[in-house]
């Protein structure tokens, strides 16, 4: 951790967080000091396992509009057959 890697380059916004590498590292570490409640961890894990976005239905609808693709799980099973009336 904290070692130089020539395969990685810093994004301009990341560099703006601190002029010095040590200051940026401290900032990054602070971001992850917060403990998540168990409900949030469970929701994030479930979303990752299903390859869908976590968040509220409103947030997911906004993502779907923005991305033009589904971010919620599809309905399970076969589509229902529509029977013709006799």
Strands, helices and their partners?
Blueprint: H1 12-16, H2 21-31, H3 38-50, H4 57-67
Description:
- This protein is mainly alpha-helical and 86 residues long.
- It has a domain at 43-67.
- It has 4 helices and no strands.
- The chain has helices at residues 12-16, 21-31, 38-50, 57-67.
- The longest helix is centred in the middle third of the chain and has 13 residues, at 38-50.
- The chain starts with 11 loop residues before the first helix and ends in a 19-residue tail after the last helix.
- The relative contact order is 0.07.
- The mean pLDDT is 83.
Give me a quick take on this structure.
The chain is an all-alpha fold and about 90 residues long. It has helices at about 10-15, 20-30, 40-50, 55-65.
Oligomer: single chain
**Uncertain segments of ≥5 residues (pLDDT<50)?**
none
Rg value? 21 Å
Number of strands: 0
Helix and strand pattern: HHHH
Shape field: elongated
Keywords:
single chain, 86 residues, mainly alpha, 4 helices
